Amino acid sequence: MNIQISNIAKLPTKYGKFKIKAYKQENQEHLAIMSEDFETLDSPYIRIHSECLTGDTLGSLKCDCQNQLDLSLKFISLNGGLVIYHRQEGRNIGLVNKVNAYALQDLGRNTIEANLELGFKEDERDYSIVKYIFEDLGIKKLKLITNNPKKIEYVESLGINIVERIPAITKSNKYNEGYISTKKEQMGHMF
Ligand SMILES: Nc1nc2c(ncn2[C@@H]2O[C@H](COP(=O)(O)OP(=O)(O)OP(=O)(O)O)[C@@H](O)[C@H]2O)c(=O)[nH]1
Ligand SMILES: [Zn+2]
């Protein structure tokens, strides 16, 4: 695996002070966002957050992404740990395809049906960069912030001990209720 890595730089934010390190794998650039005390932690809190430009940046109400990112950065700034900003937009179908999926959702498809209709699996994400980042940062055990059973399965398959799971549940709204109930009922998410 050919990965380009950056040096570590300071990143003060409205949530608190972090340190960041970037990783480039093929055409995707990812970020490790660490609390200042990260190296001293025995089992850090970790959030693997997949990119959602419409939610994270534009504040879209169609999903829970921005709220989850906000919750994670606040929590990790206070309690110590790492957010991996995993640049796999739209569960890794990319922005053009995600917007096409949204257009199908405007016609009544749910988040899974729209992906399938476009010829994708419900989730096309690849977590190999997460494995690389865990090795690079020396992570052997952690507390994972997620509702997604696939992320838990993946992290455990790396031989990493998840000592605790912290739910990433945020307030829903009338635009994301359907999305959240599809995640719960058809993707096994723990809400
Ligand atoms: N294809 C597609 N992707 C979506 C849609 N809504 C959100 N996404 C993407 O779904 C991903 C959400 O990722 P995460 O925040 O890691 O959340 P998750 O896999 O649901 O798991 P947890 O939040 O950890 O429980 C992001 O890549 C979003 O861009 C959608 O309707 N269609
Ligand atoms: Zn989103």
UniProtKB/TrEMBL annotation:
Domain GTP cyclohydrolase II: start-end pairs: 9-167
Pfam families, per the entry: GTP_cyclohydro2 (PF00925)
Enzyme's top EC category: hydrolase
A Gene Ontology biological process term: riboflavin biosynthetic process
CDD domains, sorted: GTP_cyclohydro2 (cd00641)
Binding residue positions for GTP: R47, I48, H49, S50, E51, Q68, E89, G90, R91, T111, T146, K151
Keyword Metal-binding: yes
Recorded GO CC terms: cytosol
Reactions the enzyme catalyzes: GTP + 4 H2O = 2,5-diamino-6-hydroxy-4-(5-phosphoribosylamino)-pyrimidine + formate + 2 phosphate + 3 H(+)
Keywords: GTP-binding, Hydrolase, Metal-binding, Nucleotide-binding, Riboflavin biosynthesis, Zinc
EC number: 3.5.4.25
Cofactor, free-text remark: Binds 1 zinc ion per subunit.
Binding site for Zn(2+): C52, C63, C65
Keyword Ligase in record: no
Cofactor: Zn(2+)
Function: Catalyzes the conversion of GTP to 2,5-diamino-6-ribosylamino-4(3H)-pyrimidinone 5'-phosphate (DARP), formate and pyrophosphate.
Stated family: Belongs to the GTP cyclohydrolase II family.
Name of the protein in its database record: GTP cyclohydrolase-2
Species this chain originates from: Arcobacter aquimarinus
The organism's taxonomic lineage, starting at the top: Bacteria, Pseudomonadati, Campylobacterota, Epsilonproteobacteria, Campylobacterales
Gene name per UniProt: ribA1
